[in-house]
Amino acid sequence: MALLRHTTGEIKERKALTVNPAKTCQPIGAMYAALGVHNCFPHSHGSQGCCAYHRSTLTRHYKEPIVAGTSSFTEGSSVFGGQSNLITAIDNIFTLYDPEIIAVHTTCLSETIGDDLMQISQKAKDDGKVPEGKVLIYASTPSYVGTHITGYSNMVKGILKGFAAKTGTPNGKLNIIPGFCEPSDMAEVRRLCAMMGIDIIMVPDTNGVVNGPLTGKYEMFPKGGATREEIASMGDSMGTVGLGRWATTDGVNFLDAEFKVPGTILGMPIGLQATDRFIETLHKLTGKPVPEAITFERGQMVDIISDYDQYLYGKKVALAGDPDQLLPLVELIVTLGMIPAYVVSGTAGKYFDDRMAELTKDVPYDCKYKCGPLADMYLLHQWIKNDPVDLLIGNTYLKYIARDEDIPLLRHGFPILDRMGHQYFPTFGYTGGMRLLEKILAAIMDRQDRDAPETRFELQM
């Protein structure tokens, strides 16, 4: 904490140095995506240390034991390549744990050496290390480029390349590729589609995998996750909807290019307008009417916004996290009459700047935003030191800035290491939006009550 107080308010141009990045590395996203496939065993092709970090971060976020293998590079494999290690690992995993699928992702070390996963995978099959009926899929995810979001995207494409096919017989279903989001959000997407009578195939689907019940019996492969049969039929679907431009575009485009399944890319359905667009898209693609129950939920959210606007209007917010989540969050913040004063994301993309400019063009404040490697939490802290905000929204690592600057923090995104609820309660959809509104209002009014003089400490509602 003492180090944070040395953060300078003088902002100087940085060309290479990143301090407290607003992101993590590709293999974490790849590992999470693989967990959304039923009976799939993620495998990290690199050192034990890399795999341990990725597993522990996911385990701490979800409070569930995350299973994954590693090629356990030694000095020799670090110099001469990890082919032997990977083939041995594949043989051991299928023999000892009997998964249907092994999903291999690379790390910095294996990518720097130049290991060719396609060639190694073929050799493993040729050598009889992949049993009959088992499948080996893979994705390139070096940590020295991209983020956990691009790693997720790469593994999603690897999953589709490994299974998706086209028989020529339409299945009447709609493909949904959720971005890097919570299992509770995936469950909410499935609930909304079911309410509209839409039969979907969701890949990945981590609901029931990283948020399952405590039964007293350990299951290495929980019942949740998309099955290989479901994924294989995605080439026969009527269309694909990707939720999150950064995390789903590659998968949506692959299904379109390979199987002529038309794709639509939306933002994550966080907040009123983003959820409206999602529901409208479902209606247009399938022809299914929007039931009164969904309209009722929307009306409740609008009512809450109307009731509590007076407490939120003009409050300044600073946000950090993934662009697929930040953009709809900013749209919600603007809808509430709040000010998205500062926004940073470690995942780069020109669309981020364009969309942020569009969302904030009518905001009566000079909003600052940045994405990419230098859009870190150090920069966010500098902005806040120059002009404080009323609320922080982001992952657990923002708690240090929150404490140092005495600002309320609403935890949202990845990773959340010191609170629960994210894996069980959605922020997608209208019901998720209502939960977000409740948390935002609670943070603002708790601070208002804490700071109120005795003469103004009264019942506000």
UniProtKB/TrEMBL annotation:
Q: What is its EC number?
A: 1.18.6.1
Q: Which residues form a coiled coil?
A: none
Question: Does the record's keyword annotation contain ATP-binding?
Answer: yes
Enzyme superclass (EC):
oxidoreductase
Q: Which organism is it from?
A: Solidesulfovibrio fructosivorans JJ]
Q: Subunit comment for this entry?
A: Tetramer of two alpha and two beta chains. Forms complex with the iron protein (nitrogenase component 2).
MF-aspect GO terms? ATP binding; iron-sulfur cluster binding; metal ion binding; nitrogenase activity
| Name of a matching Pfam family | Oxidored_nitro
The record ties this protein, via InterPro entries, to: ChlB/BchB/BchZ, Nase/OxRdtase_comp1, Nase_comp1_CS, Nase_Mo-Fe_CF_bsu
Domain Nitrogenase/oxidoreductase component per the UniProt entry, residue ranges: 25-444
Q: Reaction catalysed?
A: N2 + 8 reduced [2Fe-2S]-[ferredoxin] + 16 ATP + 16 H2O = H2 + 8 oxidized [2Fe-2S]-[ferredoxin] + 2 NH4(+) + 16 ADP + 16 phosphate + 6 H(+)
What does the function comment of this entry state? Answer: This molybdenum-iron protein is part of the nitrogenase complex that catalyzes the key enzymatic reactions in nitrogen fixation.
Q: Record's NCBIfam families?
A: nifK
The entry's cellular-component GO terms read:
molybdenum-iron nitrogenase complex
Task: Supply the alphabetized keyword list.
Answer: ATP-binding, Iron, Iron-sulfur, Metal-binding, Nitrogen fixation, Nucleotide-binding, Oxidoreductase
The cofactors required by this protein are: [8Fe-7S] cluster
The record's similarity note reads: Belongs to the NifD/NifK/NifE/NifN family.
Q: How many and how are cofactors bound here?
A: Binds 1 [8Fe-7S] cluster per heterodimer.
Q: Which protein is depicted?
A: Nitrogenase molybdenum-iron protein beta chain
Matching Gene3D superfamilies, A to Z? Nitrogenase molybdenum iron protein domain, Nitrogenase Molybdenum-iron Protein, subunit B, domain 4
